[in-house]
Amino acid sequence: MTPPIEFEIRRRTLLAGSAAIAMSAGLRPASAQDGAAASTPAGDSTTTVTLTVNGEPRELTVDNRVTLLDALREHLELTGTKKGCDHGQCGACTCTVNGERINSCLSLAVMHDGDEVETIEGIGTPEQMDPMQAAFVENDGFQCGYCTPGQISSARKVIEEIRAGIPSHVTGDLNAEIAITDAEIRERMSGNICRCGAYANILAAITQVAEDQA
User: Fold this and answer.
1) Is the pTM of this model over 0.90?
2) Which long-range contacts (CB under 8 A, 24 or more apart) does 37-45 make?
């Protein structure tokens, strides 16, 4: 019977063997690969896009890494759309693109060439408020007001989504007309955080608008 072979892999032996295999396969060291990649010419770092913002065509040239949120705030000076978490978790940056609400901090501006964007500045004015804005004032649906633009932008779309028959996670019968209930509104507004905790008043404002429009 053949005695067992005692074999031990040492770190230095393993690394040396791996290097030898790589060299025999014709692979270059990592430093050479990095140098080759660095010598490859990069593409354009900026792009010119045209957006229709609140009904007005706007052309701007932005770094390809600029988010739609920063394009609105820093390039177009529409500061109503707020930067909160900058990670798509708080909803303060909510606006609409082609009629759909999005977190503008998670979307690059260059992705929206030719798109229609609506921000809080395009929804209403202090002299002629949108019904949702008026309901927020009447029901005291805000305290510090930082999240309010995103809340209002989202709230208007919540009612539209329910009436369009788009279900949520709390929708029961998918074959029946979806009712505008507290549960439906809470679920659909869950992506918009109010750090002041004015949720009950926000719910009352949305419910009031839904009932007025019924």
Assistant:
1) no
2) none
Tens of pLDDT, residue by residue, the chain (214 residues): 566 656 565 665 555 655 555 555 555 555 555 555 556 567 789 999 999 999 999 999 999 999 999 999 999 999 999 999 999 999 999 999 999 999 999 999 999 999 999 999 999 999 999 999 999 999 999 999 999 999 999 999 999 999 999 999 999 999 999 999 999 999 999 999 999 999 999 999 999 999 999 8
Answer whether 140's CB lies under 8 Å from 196's CB: no
Does 209 map to a domain?
Answer: yes
Q: Is residue 140 part of a domain?
A: yes
Residues 158 and 111 in one domain: no
Q: Which of 93, 122, 151 lies at the terminal end of a domain, its last residue?
A: 122
Would 90 be classed as within a structural domain? yes
d(CA 110, CA 47): 7
